[in-house]
Structures are given as C-alpha cells and as structure tokens.
Amino acid sequence: MYLRHDIIKKDGKSHTYWRLVRSVRVGKKVRQETVAQLGELDDKGRLRAKSFVRQLGGHIEEPSLFDIPLKKEVIQLRLNGIKLEQIRRFGYMWLGHKL
Predict the structure, then answer these.
(1) Which strand ranges, in their side-by-side order, compose the sheet holding 29-39?
(2) CA-based Rg of the chain, rounded to a whole angstrom?
(3) CA–CA distance from 84 to each of 24, 67, 80, 91, 93 (Å)?
(4) What's the pLDDT tens digit per position in 68-99?
C-alpha cells in the first residue's frame, strides 16, 4: 500500500487530496484500488499516514514519497589502484541460504 495524491484546482486555488491505494492483480493486469480517502493533509498528517501505511503493510511504501531526494555525488576513481581481495562466488551463498 502507498499514498497517492491528486491536485484539483477549485475557485482559483489548488487543493491536494490524498488517498490510500493498494495494487491488486486482476488476471494479467495490475490495478490500483483505493482503500481510503484521506482528504487534505498537512505535513503532520502525511507523516502519520505514512507511519500507518508502514504498520499495515510491514514495509515502506514508495521510496522518497515525502522525503527530500538525496544528492548524487560523483567520485572519480583510478581503476589501476583498485584490487579485489577475498572474492566469494555469490551462487554458493545463495544456494546455502535457500537450503
């Protein structure tokens, strides 16, 4: 489940209405189904709704829905100065985990 918003302009003002949505598979297609209409929410209301969704679903809804996106930092590397040590094959670890 996650939160979705709709922006509606009414009387020269824009209003943001929030709703709780979940994805439902119907045949081969995935459709979004509205669980609850939450109305207009301020910052505090959005945080409370976000924590409520986490409690219901047991996981974080959409990443960076209300959070400020992190700045991407570019780092230059000299590839001839990098070496790999203690390399393990991932397949063995995955198989051991599954068994």
Answers:
(1) 2-10, 13-26, 29-39
(2) 22
(3) 44, 35, 11, 18, 18
(4) 656 677 788 888 887 777 766 667 667 777 76
Contact 66, 4 (CB under 8 A): no
Q: What distance in Å separates the CA atoms of residue 2 and residue 57, rounded to the nearest whole number?
A: 9
Cβ pair 79, 90 in contact under 8 A: no
In angstroms, the CA 91 to CA 22 distance is: 34
β pairing state of 13-26 and 2-10: antiparallel
Class of residue 95 by CB neighbours under 10 A (exposed 0-12, middle 13-18, buried 19+): exposed
